Amino acid sequence: MAAEPIAVIVNPHSQGGGLGKKWFALSAQLRRHVAFDAHLTQRPGHATELARQALAAGAQTIVAVGGDGTINEVANGFFKDGAPQHPAASLAILPLGTGGDFRRSLGLGTEFDAACRVLAAGKTRALDVGLLRYALAGGGTASRIFVNVASFGVSGLVVSMVNNSGKKLGGRLTFMLASLRASMQYENQRVRLRFDEDETTAVDVTLNVCAIANGRYFGGGMMIAPAAELDDGRFDVVTLGDLSFGETLGLTTKIYAGTHLQHKKAASRRARVVEAEPVSPGQVLALDIDGEGDGQLPARFAVVAQALKVVVP
């Protein structure tokens, strides 16, 4: 499939469909920096298939062109059953999506030519990923890799609203409006959490949101886990408890600034493995996985340490 060592996977539906209209001009700009083969996605999940095919054909760098959801799909192409399949290959990012949370965690800016220069320089860093096993809404279970943040609670409703909105308003505004709408509707839920497979750590808590964070940002720029590091072998597990609507509004600007952990209903701890399930049967807590809605609790989140090489600034 891939004749060039760089395979570029493009989601033309990113930016509310705007990327597809820009790609011809952007591809010409990219070719001034590197030679590559381009592949456009046609459906959900297609980026994972394209990444696997390109890696099997010998590509050494797979470039995700789009937003956090596209990056997640491409990253999943490097793994099978949670195990890395091409440890010498690397993932690169040209960030042209709505949220842009993983690129923030990487310290990668939004200017396209600058991102092309980062790709051409080829500096890599081995990063952790999360392996998530979870329940499907229609029954059964599934698993997938996440590279940035997986969460549940009100964030599951937020990501559903964002992805159904058409994403026409730009990243931060789209997420801010969805967060406001979701907070008005959401009822906090009781959840049982267990850490590092140690039953003595099990707690039942009422949660507004729980973020299992490899990176620092989610929700279109919210610094949910200000101390998180992408390669330290641990998740930062951040919980916001039984918040009222007023408390949620009051915390919003603090979450963007990363100062929310001082709040009495906020907590953070570190763990390699997190297990979460609803306390009451029948409760539905939807997941947000790197900005995409896919599945619900019960779920198990486990670090796979330094399992993915990523091109970084």
What portion of residues belong to β-strands? 35-45%
Ends distance: 28 Å
The radius of gyration over CA amounts to 19 Å
Shape: globular
Major sheet:
15 strands, mixed
Write down the overall mean pLDDT.
Answer: 90
- Spell out the helices and strands N to C: EHEHEHEEEHHEEEHHEEEEHEEEE
- The counted number of beta strands is 17
How many helical stretches? 8
Helix proportion range: 25-40%
Pick out the low-confidence regions: none
Structural class: alpha+beta
Summarize this, please?
The chain contains 8 helices and 17 strands.
Task: Characterise the protein shown here.
The protein has 313 residues and is an alpha+beta fold. The protein has eight helices and 17 strands. The protein has helices at 18-31, 46-56, 68-76, 101-106, 112-121, 154-163, 171-185, 245-257, and strands at residues 6-10, 37-40, 61-66, 79-80, 83-84, 90-95, 124-135, 141-146, 149-153, 189-195, 198-207, 209-213, 235-240, 266-271, 273-278, 286-289, 292-311. The protein has a 15-stranded mixed beta sheet that branches. A two-stranded antiparallel ribbon has the order 4-5. A hairpin with a 2-residue loop joins β10 and β11 (198-207). The longest helix is centred in the middle third of the chain and has 15 residues, at 171-185. It is globular.
